[in-house]
Specification:
about 75% helix; about 280 residues; mainly alpha
Protein backbone atom coordinates (compact mmCIF):
# COMPACT_ATOMS: atom_id res chain seq x y z
CA UNK A 1 0.00 0.00 0.00
CA UNK A 2 1.44 3.38 -0.99
CA UNK A 3 0.62 6.63 0.76
CA UNK A 4 0.11 10.05 -0.78
CA UNK A 5 1.57 12.92 1.25
CA UNK A 6 1.59 15.88 -1.17
CA UNK A 7 -0.85 18.57 -0.04
CA UNK A 8 -1.78 16.77 3.17
CA UNK A 9 -1.69 18.39 6.59
CA UNK A 10 0.69 17.17 9.28
CA UNK A 11 -2.06 15.22 11.06
CA UNK A 12 -3.24 13.73 7.76
CA UNK A 13 0.30 12.57 6.99
CA UNK A 14 0.61 10.92 10.39
CA UNK A 15 -2.73 9.15 9.96
CA UNK A 16 -1.90 8.09 6.39
CA UNK A 17 1.28 6.38 7.54
CA UNK A 18 -0.58 4.79 10.46
CA UNK A 19 -3.36 3.59 8.15
CA UNK A 20 -0.75 2.01 5.87
CA UNK A 21 0.75 0.19 8.84
CA UNK A 22 -2.66 -1.04 10.00
CA UNK A 23 -3.37 -2.42 6.54
CA UNK A 24 0.00 -4.18 6.55
CA UNK A 25 -0.65 -5.75 9.96
CA UNK A 26 -4.12 -6.92 8.98
CA UNK A 27 -2.84 -8.41 5.70
CA UNK A 28 -0.71 -10.83 7.71
CA UNK A 29 -3.59 -12.20 9.76
CA UNK A 30 -1.90 -15.43 10.83
CA UNK A 31 1.14 -13.60 12.16
CA UNK A 32 -1.10 -11.00 13.78
CA UNK A 33 -3.12 -13.64 15.64
CA UNK A 34 -0.12 -15.75 16.61
CA UNK A 35 1.57 -12.71 18.16
CA UNK A 36 -1.20 -12.59 20.73
CA UNK A 37 -1.50 -16.34 21.16
CA UNK A 38 2.21 -16.45 22.01
CA UNK A 39 1.47 -14.19 24.98
CA UNK A 40 -0.37 -17.09 26.62
CA UNK A 41 2.67 -19.35 26.35
CA UNK A 42 5.08 -16.65 27.47
CA UNK A 43 3.15 -15.65 30.56
CA UNK A 44 2.45 -19.28 31.49
CA UNK A 45 6.15 -20.11 31.20
CA UNK A 46 7.19 -17.41 33.64
CA UNK A 47 4.34 -18.27 36.00
CA UNK A 48 5.60 -21.82 36.40
CA UNK A 49 9.23 -20.67 36.55
CA UNK A 50 8.17 -18.44 39.46
CA UNK A 51 6.84 -21.53 41.24
CA UNK A 52 10.33 -22.99 40.95
CA UNK A 53 12.17 -19.85 42.02
CA UNK A 54 10.19 -19.35 45.21
CA UNK A 55 11.33 -16.71 47.69
CA UNK A 56 14.74 -15.77 46.37
CA UNK A 57 16.69 -13.44 48.70
CA UNK A 58 17.67 -11.40 45.63
CA UNK A 59 14.03 -10.39 45.29
CA UNK A 60 13.90 -9.13 48.87
CA UNK A 61 13.90 -5.44 47.90
CA UNK A 62 10.90 -6.00 45.65
CA UNK A 63 7.46 -6.77 47.02
CA UNK A 64 5.62 -9.66 45.44
CA UNK A 65 7.00 -12.84 43.94
CA UNK A 66 9.18 -13.56 40.92
CA UNK A 67 6.14 -13.81 38.66
CA UNK A 68 5.22 -10.16 39.23
CA UNK A 69 8.87 -9.14 38.88
CA UNK A 70 9.23 -10.97 35.54
CA UNK A 71 5.84 -9.80 34.27
CA UNK A 72 6.91 -6.17 34.58
CA UNK A 73 10.12 -7.03 32.73
CA UNK A 74 8.24 -8.73 29.89
CA UNK A 75 5.90 -5.77 29.45
CA UNK A 76 8.64 -3.15 29.49
CA UNK A 77 10.93 -5.21 27.26
CA UNK A 78 8.27 -5.41 24.57
CA UNK A 79 7.51 -1.69 24.70
CA UNK A 80 11.14 -0.57 24.60
CA UNK A 81 12.03 -3.05 21.84
CA UNK A 82 9.18 -1.74 19.67
CA UNK A 83 10.28 1.85 20.31
CA UNK A 84 13.86 1.01 19.37
CA UNK A 85 13.22 -1.03 16.21
CA UNK A 86 10.13 0.58 14.68
CA UNK A 87 11.90 3.31 12.72
CA UNK A 88 14.45 0.90 11.28
CA UNK A 89 11.72 -1.45 10.13
CA UNK A 90 9.71 1.40 8.62
CA UNK A 91 12.70 2.87 6.78
CA UNK A 92 13.73 -0.59 5.57
CA UNK A 93 10.24 -1.30 4.27
CA UNK A 94 10.06 2.01 2.41
CA UNK A 95 13.50 1.46 0.91
CA UNK A 96 12.70 -2.08 -0.23
CA UNK A 97 9.46 -0.90 -1.86
CA UNK A 98 11.20 2.08 -3.49
CA UNK A 99 8.92 4.66 -1.85
CA UNK A 100 11.30 6.24 0.66
CA UNK A 101 12.69 8.77 -1.80
CA UNK A 102 9.16 9.69 -2.94
CA UNK A 103 7.98 10.24 0.64
CA UNK A 104 10.99 12.37 1.51
CA UNK A 105 10.79 14.34 -1.71
CA UNK A 106 7.09 15.20 -1.38
CA UNK A 107 6.92 15.83 2.36
CA UNK A 108 7.77 19.28 3.71
CA UNK A 109 8.90 17.64 6.93
CA UNK A 110 9.83 14.07 7.78
CA UNK A 111 8.45 14.43 11.34
CA UNK A 112 4.93 13.20 10.40
CA UNK A 113 6.50 10.15 8.80
CA UNK A 114 8.39 9.45 12.02
CA UNK A 115 5.38 9.90 14.26
CA UNK A 116 3.11 7.96 11.92
CA UNK A 117 5.44 5.00 11.70
CA UNK A 118 5.71 4.87 15.50
CA UNK A 119 1.99 5.07 16.21
CA UNK A 120 0.73 1.60 15.23
CA UNK A 121 3.62 -0.50 16.61
CA UNK A 122 3.47 1.27 19.96
CA UNK A 123 -0.31 0.91 20.18
CA UNK A 124 0.02 -2.80 19.42
CA UNK A 125 2.67 -3.19 22.09
CA UNK A 126 0.48 -1.37 24.60
CA UNK A 127 -2.37 -3.74 23.74
CA UNK A 128 0.01 -6.64 24.34
CA UNK A 129 1.02 -5.06 27.65
CA UNK A 130 -2.65 -4.83 28.60
CA UNK A 131 -3.11 -8.52 27.80
CA UNK A 132 -0.06 -9.46 29.86
CA UNK A 133 -1.31 -7.48 32.83
CA UNK A 134 -4.91 -8.61 32.39
CA UNK A 135 -3.97 -12.27 32.28
CA UNK A 136 -1.45 -11.86 35.06
CA UNK A 137 -3.89 -10.14 37.41
CA UNK A 138 -7.18 -11.72 36.37
CA UNK A 139 -6.08 -15.31 35.77
CA UNK A 140 -2.78 -15.90 37.56
CA UNK A 141 -3.21 -13.60 40.53
CA UNK A 142 -0.50 -11.00 40.01
CA UNK A 143 -0.72 -8.34 42.70
CA UNK A 144 -0.95 -5.16 40.62
CA UNK A 145 -3.28 -2.37 41.68
CA UNK A 146 -5.24 -0.18 39.29
CA UNK A 147 -3.64 2.93 40.77
CA UNK A 148 -0.16 1.44 40.28
CA UNK A 149 -0.93 0.75 36.62
CA UNK A 150 -1.98 4.37 36.11
CA UNK A 151 1.10 5.69 37.90
CA UNK A 152 3.35 3.58 35.66
CA UNK A 153 2.14 5.38 32.51
CA UNK A 154 4.48 8.42 32.80
CA UNK A 155 7.45 6.09 33.20
CA UNK A 156 6.34 4.08 30.18
CA UNK A 157 5.90 7.26 28.13
CA UNK A 158 9.40 8.44 29.01
CA UNK A 159 10.81 5.02 28.11
CA UNK A 160 9.11 5.19 24.70
CA UNK A 161 10.59 8.65 24.12
CA UNK A 162 14.14 7.56 25.03
CA UNK A 163 14.19 4.42 22.92
CA UNK A 164 12.39 6.06 20.01
CA UNK A 165 15.24 8.56 19.96
CA UNK A 166 17.79 5.76 19.91
CA UNK A 167 15.83 4.02 17.15
CA UNK A 168 15.72 7.21 15.10
CA UNK A 169 19.47 7.60 15.53
CA UNK A 170 19.99 4.08 14.18
CA UNK A 171 17.64 4.84 11.28
CA UNK A 172 19.93 7.67 10.18
CA UNK A 173 22.60 5.02 9.67
CA UNK A 174 20.17 2.94 7.59
CA UNK A 175 19.31 5.91 5.36
CA UNK A 176 22.96 6.59 4.63
CA UNK A 177 24.05 2.98 4.09
CA UNK A 178 20.85 1.59 2.50
CA UNK A 179 21.44 -1.54 4.57
CA UNK A 180 19.83 -3.08 7.60
CA UNK A 181 20.94 -1.96 11.01
CA UNK A 182 23.05 -4.63 12.75
CA UNK A 183 23.11 -2.78 16.07
CA UNK A 184 19.59 -2.48 17.46
CA UNK A 185 19.02 -6.23 17.80
CA UNK A 186 22.18 -6.48 19.88
CA UNK A 187 21.11 -3.47 21.94
CA UNK A 188 17.77 -5.13 22.72
CA UNK A 189 19.48 -8.35 23.85
CA UNK A 190 22.10 -6.52 25.90
CA UNK A 191 19.41 -4.39 27.52
CA UNK A 192 17.37 -7.46 28.49
CA UNK A 193 20.47 -9.00 30.06
CA UNK A 194 21.87 -5.97 31.88
CA UNK A 195 18.89 -3.79 32.83
CA UNK A 196 17.20 -6.23 35.22
CA UNK A 197 14.44 -7.29 32.87
CA UNK A 198 14.07 -10.86 34.14
CA UNK A 199 16.37 -10.96 37.17
CA UNK A 200 17.74 -8.39 39.63
CA UNK A 201 21.01 -6.78 38.59
CA UNK A 202 22.49 -7.75 41.96
CA UNK A 203 23.13 -11.16 40.42
CA UNK A 204 25.54 -9.55 37.94
CA UNK A 205 29.25 -8.96 38.62
CA UNK A 206 29.91 -5.51 40.15
CA UNK A 207 31.36 -4.12 36.92
CA UNK A 208 28.23 -5.05 34.98
CA UNK A 209 26.04 -3.57 37.69
CA UNK A 210 27.71 -0.23 36.97
CA UNK A 211 26.96 -0.70 33.26
CA UNK A 212 23.34 -1.56 34.12
CA UNK A 213 22.88 1.84 35.70
CA UNK A 214 23.86 3.52 32.44
CA UNK A 215 20.91 1.94 30.61
CA UNK A 216 17.58 3.84 30.54
CA UNK A 217 15.54 0.64 30.88
CA UNK A 218 17.01 0.03 34.32
CA UNK A 219 15.41 3.21 35.65
CA UNK A 220 12.13 2.51 33.88
CA UNK A 221 11.97 -0.97 35.41
CA UNK A 222 12.89 0.28 38.87
CA UNK A 223 10.22 2.97 38.70
CA UNK A 224 7.47 0.76 37.30
CA UNK A 225 8.20 -2.01 39.79
CA UNK A 226 8.11 0.52 42.63
CA UNK A 227 4.63 1.78 41.75
CA UNK A 228 3.24 -1.65 40.85
CA UNK A 229 4.83 -3.85 43.49
CA UNK A 230 5.67 -1.54 46.39
CA UNK A 231 2.75 0.88 46.25
CA UNK A 232 5.03 3.86 45.60
CA UNK A 233 3.70 7.21 44.41
CA UNK A 234 5.08 9.48 41.71
CA UNK A 235 7.06 11.42 44.30
CA UNK A 236 8.81 8.19 45.26
CA UNK A 237 9.97 7.58 41.69
CA UNK A 238 10.86 11.20 40.92
CA UNK A 239 14.54 10.32 40.57
CA UNK A 240 13.83 7.60 38.00
CA UNK A 241 11.55 9.93 36.03
CA UNK A 242 14.13 12.72 36.13
CA UNK A 243 16.86 10.39 34.82
CA UNK A 244 14.63 9.14 32.00
CA UNK A 245 13.70 12.75 31.16
CA UNK A 246 17.41 13.59 31.08
CA UNK A 247 18.11 10.75 28.66
CA UNK A 248 15.23 12.01 26.49
CA UNK A 249 16.44 15.61 26.49
CA UNK A 250 19.90 14.52 25.36
CA UNK A 251 19.10 11.69 22.93
CA UNK A 252 16.03 12.95 21.02
CA UNK A 253 17.55 16.25 19.74
CA UNK A 254 20.74 14.44 18.71
CA UNK A 255 18.66 11.84 16.86
CA UNK A 256 16.56 14.48 15.09
CA UNK A 257 19.67 16.36 13.95
CA UNK A 258 21.35 13.11 12.80
CA UNK A 259 18.27 12.04 10.84
CA UNK A 260 17.88 15.47 9.26
CA UNK A 261 21.50 15.52 8.15
CA UNK A 262 21.33 11.94 6.91
CA UNK A 263 18.34 12.82 4.74
CA UNK A 264 20.06 15.94 3.37
CA UNK A 265 23.20 13.95 2.52
CA UNK A 266 21.12 11.19 0.94
CA UNK A 267 19.21 13.67 -1.23
CA UNK A 268 22.34 15.58 -2.23
CA UNK A 269 24.36 12.48 -3.14
CA UNK A 270 21.50 10.55 -4.72
CA UNK A 271 21.82 7.65 -2.28
CA UNK A 272 18.05 7.17 -2.10
CA UNK A 273 17.64 6.72 -5.82
CA UNK A 274 20.82 4.77 -6.51
CA UNK A 275 20.63 1.10 -7.26
Amino acid sequence: MTIRVAGATTLERILLVARRDIATEVSYQYSFVMRYVSILFSIATFYFVSRLVGDSPELGRYSGEYFEFALVGLVMSGITAASLTTFNQSVGMEMSSGTLEILLATARSYTPLILGSLLVPIVLRLIEAGLYVGLGVGVLGAGFSASGILLSLPLIALSIAVFSGLGLLASAFVVLTKRGDPITGLVVQATNLLAGTLFPITLLPPVLQVVSKMIPTFYALEGVRAVLLDGAGLADVADEMAILAGFTIVIVPIALVAMSRAIRVAKRTGILISS
